[in-house]
User: What shape does this take?
Amino acid sequence: MSRAMAAKTIPEVVLNSGHKMPNLGFGTGTLPLPPSHVLIPAFIEAIKVGYRHFDTAACYGSEEPLGEAIAQALDQGLIKSRSELFVTSKLYCNEAHPGLVLPALKSSLQ
Assistant: This one.
């Protein structure tokens, strides 16, 4: 199945913002966390086979390798822009306090 066909067969939900989010996502949490030289090619392969939704979290340790994989996928022409991907992350419970949320969000976005 081609990448375009795979992407079209994954159901989507329309969010209140109007953005479409694929119902099927590639989870990036695993213990123990493999090294980046293992994770990055796995994420790139997921993009190649049609995944467009990636689920991560700062506590997983996979945000940075996922960001690198996305940069490489852009360089390789696997995706035309970052907007083709839907990336979800999570706020860890100990960061859900005033004064900690914004720094945690900025760190995840970095």
